């Protein structure tokens, strides 16, 4: 796995965390901020997955995020993990 794909994995984790957080918020009440959080999370998740899979354009160029510095990758992965863990904990407490 190269650094570009590792960046894509970090963005995928972060996007999944945003989707879970927005979905848990939407369970309580329907507000615009929660819907936007979930919507932007889906967008980030899609871009992250495309970056990991490595979709090529018809001209042979790669479409994706590109490589990021190590500290950015670590912070994105940590933030995504914390968002996912927080969403799971909120689901366990609410149910």
Following the backbone from N to C, one meets helices and strands in this order, namely: HHH
Q: Report the mean per-residue pLDDT as an integer.
A: 83
Structural class: mainly alpha
Provide the low-confidence segments as ranges: none
CA-atom Rg in angstroms: 15 Å
Using DSSP, what is the number of strands? 0
Largest sheet: none
| Distance linking N and C termini | 38 Å
Number of helices: 3
Tell me what portion of residues adopts beta-strand conformation.
under 5%
Name the helicity range. Answer: over 70%
Shape: elongated
Q: Can you tell me the number of structural domains?
A: 1
Keywords: Membrane, Transmembrane, Transmembrane helix
Transmembrane segments: 32-59, 71-93
Descriptive account of the structure:
Keywords: Membrane, Transmembrane, Transmembrane helix. The chain crosses the membrane at residues 32-59, 71-93. This protein is an all-alpha fold and 95 residues long. The chain has one domain. It is 77% helix and 0% strand. The relative contact order is 0.24.
Summarize the structure.
Keywords: Membrane, Transmembrane, Transmembrane helix. Helices cover 77% and strands 0% of the residues.
Keywords:
membrane, transmembrane helix, elongated, 95 residues, mainly alpha, transmembrane
């Amino acid at each position: 796995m190269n650094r570009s794909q590792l960046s894509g994995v970090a963005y995928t984790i972060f996007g999944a965390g945003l989707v879970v957080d927005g979905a848990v918020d939407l369970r309580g009440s329907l507000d615009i901020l929660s819907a936007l959080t979930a919507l932007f999370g889906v967008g980030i998740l899609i871009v992250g997955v495309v970056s990991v899979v490595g979709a090529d354009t018809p001209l042979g160029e790669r479409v994706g995020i590109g490589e990021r510095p190590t500290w950015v990758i670590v912070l994105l992965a940590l933030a995504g993990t914390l968002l996912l863990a927080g969403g799971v904990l909120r689901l366990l407490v609410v149910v």
